[in-house]
Amino acid sequence: MEQLIKTIVQPLVDFPEEVSVIADESANRIVYKLSVHPSDIGKVIGKQGSVAKAIRAIVYSAASSHRMKKTYVDILD
User: Fold this and answer.
1) pLDDT for 16-27, tens place per residue?
2) 3-state secondary structure of 33
3) C-alpha torsion sign, points 19, 21, 72, 60
4) Strand 29-35 relative to strand 20-25: parallel, antiparallel, unpaired?
5) d(Cα 52, Cα 45) in Å, to the nearest integer?
6) pTM of the model
7) Is residue 68 over pLDDT 80?
8) Which of 6, 17, 21, 43 has the fewest Cβ atoms within 10 Å of its own Cβ atom?
9) Percentage of the chain with pLDDT > 70?
């Protein structure tokens, strides 16, 4: 799932080498923490969060077919 997030985000940003995804897994949920260069945060979030919503929708859809845990995507500052 980390590779899917990187594949989606890297073409959107100016510094693709600084895109990192860390998975934090507990008993009933998985949180993917997305970190990008500070100047790229706006590009990943988009106007009114539209890009972030689209990224989350794709990840949630892909994760629901693979795992029985709740999946979240956090964009870190």
Assistant:
1) 999 999 999 988
2) strand
3) positive
4) antiparallel
5) 5
6) 0.88
7) no
8) 17
9) 97
Please state, in angstroms and rounded to a whole number, the distance separating the CA atoms of residues 60 and 70.
8
Name the CA dihedral angle for 36, 23, 60, 75, rounded to a multiple of 10 degrees: -30
Question: Which residue's structure tokens are 């100016």?
Answer: 14
The 3-state DSSP class for residue 19 equals coil
Written as six digits, the tokens of 5 are 């997030």
List the domain boundaries for the chain: 2-76
Please say whether the structural domain 2-76 has been given the CATH code 3.30.300.20: yes
